[in-house]
Amino acid sequence: MKLLHLDSSILGQNSVSRQLTAAIVAGLRQQHGELSISYRDLAAQPIAHLSGEIIAANFTEQADWNDTQRQESALSNELIEEFLAADILVIGAPMYNFSIPSQLKSWIDRVAAAGRTFKYTENGPQGLAGGKKVLIASTRGGVYSTEQGQLMDFQEDYLRTVLGFLGVTDIEFVRAEAVNMGEDKRATAIHAAKQDIARLTR
Q1: Do residues 153 and 120 lie in contact, with contact meaning Cβ atoms separated by under 8 Å?
Q2: How far apart are CA 166 and CA 122, in angstroms?
Q3: Side-chain-side CA neighbours of residue 146 (13 Å)
Q4: Taking Cα atoms as reference points, which of 143, 44, 132, 55 lies closest to residue 90?
Q5: Which pTM value belongs to this model?
Q6: What is the rounded radius of gyration, in angstroms, for the C-alpha atoms of the chain?
């Protein structure tokens, strides 16, 4: 069984989402035994945002690609193959300004590839990457699970939508909120999230 582990927080050792993804992976190791794990730290080794130059490779003969296009096309293919091969994804997705980190968005922009992970049909788009389980460590400095807070949440809904577009519907969120609202609330949120992790991976 193959697991792809993605972290995207820029906070390093101070990151709650990194702490939670590590706990999820440890729990899955115990649950499944042998796991082949691939890891990407999208903050430490960022993927370049899509640019006109990179995307132009899709409409240019390979013989005419420049060095950047060759390198970035090879990386895109590697990321897509890694994503398609994974049976389980563990994603660290902190909320930054009501959405996800741009580092994680860069990864999504590479793996959301027409003809590879989705296709358009007469009946609309069809995801091609189904059959995976995704566990997402969702961390928020404030509280966004309230009715009013949900109006500002473009993090969890976006991830559920874009993964669903690719055919991935088995998604679980492990949420830690109010992590920037004092040490007590932070500790309480982390403890509750780790209890959820224990439940999901037992």
Answers
A1: no
A2: 17
A3: 6
A4: 132
A5: 0.96
A6: 18
Is residue 39 helix, strand or coil? strand
Q: What proportion of the chain, given as a percentage, has pLDDT over 90? A: 98
Query: How do 133-139 and 124-127 pair as beta strands?
Result: unpaired
**Euclidean distance between CA atoms 18 and 91, whole angstroms:** 9
Close Cβ partners of 53 (under 8 Å, ≥ 6 residues apart): 66, 68, 69
The DSSP output letter for 157 is: H
- Banded pLDDT at 202 (limits 50, 70, 90): confident
In three-state secondary structure terms, 64 is helix
The band of 33, judged by pLDDT with boundaries at 50, 70 and 90, is: confident
Domains of the chain: 2-201 (3.40.50.360)
- Could you please report the per-residue DSSP string of 112-128? --BTTTEEEETTEEEES
Q: What percent of the chain has pLDDT over 70?
A: 100
DSSP structure class, residue 93? E
Residue type, 156: E
**Tokens, residue 51:** 């640019």
